[in-house]
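Input.
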Amino acid sequence: MGDNGPYFIQKISTKEILGADGGWYSIATILGNPKVLCKFETQHTARIRGKQLGKEKTQVLNQKTIKSRLGYADSVWEKILKEMKVGLVLDKDKKKATANSELPTDDSAPEELPGKLSAEPGSVCASETAIKASLETPIISETMDILEQLAGLALRWQNAKDAYSGNLRKLEEAIMDELHFVEFMELDTRRAYRSYKRLHDLRIQRRQLKNEQIVMDTASAALKMEPAALYTGVQRALNSLQGLKTRKYAPRVVWPAEDDSINP
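Output.
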């Protein structure tokens, strides 16, 4: 794969990422199950897949962008990448891209009709256009964005807390090594300045680490939730709000738009 690959497809309207099952997933949902993502080996195959999605406006993101939003360490991210499915491969003989998993193509995807009948007997699904219009308010979009950011932040808080003791110990041991270096060695001006600079940088890193803990502890106290509980709560809220994208209605008498050409 390329220097910035693999690549991923994002739906511009909702900022959701394409999954291996053809569904769209928010960053918060992906944090709980990153293997659900669909990766593409090249930008070219990702763009071809994006065009196959028809009316959906999409953009291609590189792995660096996705990884930074999820906040995973390099070693963890590499393991996750190995378990992701490749969405599209390029047939070099035919010079043509072909699907390599369960992802639906335009030929297999059913055409969406406004107010189409639901699989649930006696109910009707809202069209995607109607659902999108009903969710386009500043309060909804800003709240959803904040919830997704909060879920990601809570996960990074937890990772930082888990790594705190080990990281602090490494810094303090490095500081101790530098102090012994100054004690044991006879330093000229140039070497003394370099030692001072190393010591100064280590102390700044130590202070940053401790300040991070203060900020996270203060925020957790204000929210009255530890990072793990905060992530779980926000994730539960986001999962619940996904129901807004699949609204159904059970007609009280009869559904008026029997003719699919009539828009509700």
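Residues 7-109 form one domain.
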